[in-house]
């Protein structure tokens, strides 16, 4: 609860204790995975606030296993309908929703040092962002920043989608990775920067990259080759690989593997499926291949997540 109050007080200009009614809450707490909490509140009194983000870097060189990175956001201007879920509403929450209750929405995403290790274990640390992800920056800190359009769009998408069950898990994981990438930019410069790949300056080019990401998620259990993916989005293979790396900060293969393994955690821990079933659903030819990939990505054996 203290984490929620922290970001609410930062967002609220007058700094007084917020008076809010909880309307909706969703959380995930899968071992070895992203932990998150999304809370939607109704303000009992007029709420004066700005969309705000906070990056919390917790570092303790005496207890490295307790190191973590946390992203917290507070957004306003959305609407909540009591009669029906906004996930199935035809109106987006920021575009004239007829819901009666305007909300204050709080998002908290928690990343352990063990989870973030996958992004840096084969990378030469060349800047502050790399040092933070690898927990090589020697001092704890908190960074508060305004929300650019990219972050706000990703947060709105988490409130306004129609996915359920396994597809919802895949979608949410992808959006959380986007938020991690975009929020780390605040450690250097919060302003929007130009693209190294000039074809990304064209909206059409960027749309093709996002389309490729969506196609990968749709084939989470049916792996595609780069050639097949490039045909589906009508983009040159070289452009596709370079553009994907620039926008999402990782290669197509690494992104796909990250999403598959995060989904595997969900299927094992939340859905209680067997290792055999999960291996088959994710398109692995054998349980041993799946187990090896899972251990490499998560540091855990698949059976460790079975309840």
Fold topology:
Layout: H1 2-11, E1 20-29, E2 35-43, E3 52-58, E4 68-80, E5 101-112, H2 113-116, H3 128-133, E6 141-146, H4 149-159, H5 165-184, H6 203-218, H7 226-233, H8 237-248, H9 252-269, H10 275-281, H11 287-298
Helix pairs in contact: 4-5, 5-9, 6-7, 6-8, 9-11
Structure description:
The protein is α+β, with helices and mostly antiparallel strands and 307 residues long. The chain has a domain at 1-189. It has eleven helices and six strands. It has helices spanning 2-11, 113-116, 128-133, 149-159, 165-184, 203-218, 226-233, 237-248, 252-269, 275-281, 287-298, and strands at residues 20-29, 35-43, 52-58, 68-80, 101-112, 141-146. A six-stranded antiparallel sheet has the order 1-2-5-4-3-6, sandwiched between helices. 29% of the residues are buried.
Q: Report, as a whole number of angstroms, the end-to-end distance.
A: 27 Å
- Secondary structure class reads alpha+beta
- Please tell me how large the radius of gyration is: 20 Å
Main beta sheet strand tally, sense and closure: 6 strands, antiparallel
Mean pLDDT level: 83
Low-confidence stretches: 189-193
Count every beta strand, where a strand is a DSSP E run of 2 or more residues.
6
Kindly state the percentage of residues in helix: 40-55%
Brief descriptors of the model:
307 residues, alpha+beta, six-stranded antiparallel β-sheet, 11 helices, 6 strands, 40% helix
């Amino acid at each position: 609860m203290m984490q929620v109050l922290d970001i609410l007080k930062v967002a609220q200009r007058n700094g007084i204790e917020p008076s809010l009614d909880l309307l909706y809450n969703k959380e995930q707490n899968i071992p070895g995975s992203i932990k998150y909490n999304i809370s939607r509140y109704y303000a009992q009194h007029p709420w004066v606030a700005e969309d705000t983000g906070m990056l919390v870097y917790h570092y303790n060189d005496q207890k490295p296993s307790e190191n973590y990175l946390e992203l917290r956001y507070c957004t306003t201007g959305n609407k909540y309908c009591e009669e029906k879920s906004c996930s199935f509403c035809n109106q987006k929450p920021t575009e004239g929703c007829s819901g009666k209750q305007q909300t204050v929405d709080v998002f908290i995403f928690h990343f352990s040092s063990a989870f973030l290790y996958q992004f840096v274990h084969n990378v030469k640390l060349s800047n502050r962002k790399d040092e933070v992800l690898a927990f090589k920056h020697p001092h704890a800190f908190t960074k508060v920043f305004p929300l650019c359009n990219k972050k706000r769009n990703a947060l709105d998408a988490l409130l306004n989608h129609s996915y359920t069950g396994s597809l919802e898990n895949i979608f949410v994981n992808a959006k959380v990775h986007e938020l991690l990438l975009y929020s780390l930019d605040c450690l250097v410069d919060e302003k929007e920067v130009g693209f190294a790949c000039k074809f990304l300056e064209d909206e059409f080019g960027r749309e093709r990259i996002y389309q490729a990401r969506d196609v990968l998620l749709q084939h989470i259990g049916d792996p595609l080759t780069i050639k097949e993916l490039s045909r589906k989005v009508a983009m040159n293979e070289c452009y596709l690989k370079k553009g994907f790396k620039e926008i999402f900060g990782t290669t197509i293969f690494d992104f796909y593997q990250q999403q598959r393994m995060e989904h595997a955690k969900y299927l094992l821990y939340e859905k209680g499926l067997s290792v055999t079933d999960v291996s088959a659903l994710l398109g692995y030819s054998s349980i041993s291949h799946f187990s090896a990939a899972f251990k490499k990505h998560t540091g855990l054996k698949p059976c460790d997540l079975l309840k």
